[in-house]
TrEMBL record, chains A, B:
Ranges of residues in domain GST N-terminal: 1-82
Domain GST C-terminal, chain residue ranges per copy: 84-200
Entry's Gene Ontology molecular function annotations: transferase activity
Protein name (Swiss-Prot/TrEMBL): Glutathione S-transferase family protein
Xref: Pfam families: GST_C, GST_N_2
């Protein structure tokens, strides 16, 4: 039985929710309200010194943070993680792209735009976040123009990682209608067996 | 024969240089001056649409970007990447930590402090970058206080990934003397066989 520590409305935590359901793994969800300090308590920092969600409890004393590392752990020896050396490296390539070139703009724009008060000073960051986020979406659009999924023409944890914040990018003020190949890929991902909705 | 496209002074590119030397793999280095637009040419963007270094040329038509995905690819089936499922996931955990919580602060502070003119407006970002970078160093210090290496008490690609920008953090104005466990770990990494210096 895994323990998934996360906040249901977070895209990074949603990745776990999707993988646990689609891999039909037994788990218990522990809601951690990272918007209100629950990741900064001494008890939580003892489990994850970096003070972030999600976190996977594997067994007594074994914990794993970092959403994309958790996806790779859960998907080991499953159809969601290719065995081929180059394909597996491409899955990681897109996961690192997600955490470095995509999430810091698209997820952060969503957080500011959808969750902070209308007069919050961080709204001044939105134009720059949207510019960089659109650069990431353009890279994805070009890649998906000739492909059904990110790697090897099969649904993998790379798709889960990128779906999490792309499918709700409109929350951050992004116009997904400008990216038709992304739109078709989002529909393919949402049609996978055992798909669950963000926040459910 | 691999082709390593990179800029020798970049820590992300240095990761490849270290791994290629330490794994004794045959390669040719192609210097790409990303500080002066060489990653934005049509020819380079055709190889890596995300316009970044490093990039690994594997064989005709096969390329792999993202420094940490390249490390995992190169280290497959070697002593630098553990076979155990949990240890391998922990290697990825620290690599995602590096790209999300470490590099955007410690590498960017170095770039601004060491490479931009004294009157560059981005110097105003340095206090915030140093605050966040020190948070990452504190997480590493706590982890290394009871360990020799990041995962499984063995040198791995997680150490290479974190060494790249940590060992030169003073370039960005960080005081490594405040982190004794990191200092001892840096010495252990530098003492590995076939270690090479940044920029060499």
């Amino acid at each position: 039985m895994f323990i998934a520590y996360g906040m249901k409305l977070s895209g990074n935590c949603y990745k776990l929710h999707l993988a646990l359901e689609q891999l039909q793994l037994p788990y218990r969800w522990v809601e951690i309200d990272s918007m209100h300090g629950a990741t900064r308590t001494p008890e939580y920092l003892a489990l994850n010194a970096n003070g972030k969600v999600p976190l996977l409890g594997i067994e007594s004393g074994k914990y794993l943070p970092e959403s994309n590392a958790i996806l790779c752990y859960l998907a080991a020896d499953s159809a969601l993680l290719p065995n081929d050396r180059y394909e597996r490296a491409q899955v990681l390539q897109w996961m690192f792209f997600e955490q470095y070139s995509h999430e810091p703009y698209i997820a952060v724009a969503r957080m500011i735009n959808a969750f902070l008060p209308a007069d919050d000073s961080r709204r001044a960051d939105l134009p720059r976040l949207r510019e960089r986020g659109n650069q990431a979406l353009a890279v994805m659009e070009q890649h998906l123009a000739t492909r059904s999924y990110f790697v090897g023409e099969r649904y993998s944890v790379a798709d889960i990682a990128l779906y999490a914040y792309t499918h709700c990018a409109t929350d951050g003020g992004f116009d997904l209608a400008s990216y038709p190949a992304i739109g078709q890929w989002l529909a393919r991902v949402a049609a996978q067996p055992s798909h669950v909705l963000l926040g459910s």
